Amino acid sequence: MPESTSTPGRTARKWLLTQNSDLRRIGVFNWTLPAFVIELPDGSHFNVCPQAGVCAQLCYARVGTYRFKNVRAAHIRNLLLCRDTPEEFERQMTEELRHKRYVGKWIRVHDSGEFFSDDYLLTWMRIMRNSPGVRFYCYTKEISRFKRLVVNDAPDNFLWCYSLGGKEDHLIDLNTERHADVFPDVEALIAAEYTDQTESDLLSVLSESPLVGIPANRIPHLLKKQGRETFGSLQRARDEKLRAKNERAGQRFALAH
Ligand code: SF4
Asked: What is residue 74's three-state secondary structure?
């Protein structure tokens, strides 16, 4: 659970970064945003995961405890802080990361939510560079944004793993680029020769093989929806359907002109 901080000069408030028992076991702290399209307190809507594809329909962060009122409120508070007052977010996060509890630790940026804009990603990269004693990692579906802004200019203490199930899956070289796919179970990911990251989430960025397999969360209705497919195979099927539809529309347009 979040705790109060006693860093001098800061009013008592909760930590920005949290930790559950699984993450504590492997020395990881976590920054979380809401998942996908959410309604904000002023009635407006915001898409926190612009490149989400099939994952949005299978997202564990849109069900269960993530829907509890207090949990949702905390995630929305995080979003409003980093989206609407980015300088304040950067200041608070950089200051918090100086605390001794983070020395030598890993920060997972987002267990839900995404790098929703260039500015937000660049803010995190500055925070990382100003926190040299801390290490950072993430999964991301923001493939083109990462290729444009991170790949050739990554902070030394930042590792990432592309994650399948998004609209930009086709930009990932599945043979050479580190990526994660969500399988129905461990047996399926082993059969596909992916590395099982169940033992430690850090294997997503530290495993020898760049092919990282995640067994789907045991949430019955989501498991049923996923069937024997992976997020990657479902997205490829959706992309193909869209491509065929666009092709048909193109042919109709050509015939009519
Ligand atoms: S990108 Fe991640 S958090 Fe967002 S909808 Fe997809 S699985 Fe959920």
From this structure: helix
Let me know if residue 176 belongs to a domain.
yes
Centroid of ligand 1 to alpha carbon of 49 (angstroms): 6
Q: Tell me the residue range of the domain where 193 lies.
A: 14-256
Strand order in the sheet with 106-109: 28-31, 106-109, 135-140, 158-163, 179-183, 211-215, 195-196
Pocket of ligand 1 (CB under 6 A): 35-36, 49, 52, 55-56, 59, 61, 112-114, 141
In a domain, 31, yes or no: yes
- Over residues 152-196, the pLDDT tens digits come to 999 999 999 999 999 999 999 999 999 999 999 999 999 999 999
Provide the number of structural domains found in the chain.
Answer: 1
Q: How confident is the model at residue 205 (pLDDT cuts 50, 70, 90)?
A: very high
Q: Which two tokens stand for residue 156?
A: 């030394």
Residue 5 inside a domain? The answer is no
**Residue 6 resides in a domain:** no
To test ligand 1's pocket by mutation, which of 46, 110, 141 has the most ligand atoms within 8 angstroms of CB?
141
Q: Using 50, 70 and 90 to split pLDDT, how confident is the model at 20?
A: confident
Can you tell me the distance from the alpha carbon of 137 to that of 159, in angstroms, rounded to the nearest whole number? 5
Q: CA of 194: how far to CAs of 81, 188, 198, 205, 209, in Å?
A: 37, 9, 12, 13, 8
With CA atoms as reference, report the closest residue to 74 among 148, 146, 2, 150.
2
The per-residue pLDDT for range 107-127, each reduced to its tens digit, is 999 999 999 999 999 999 999
- d(CA 75, ligand 1 centre) in Å: 14
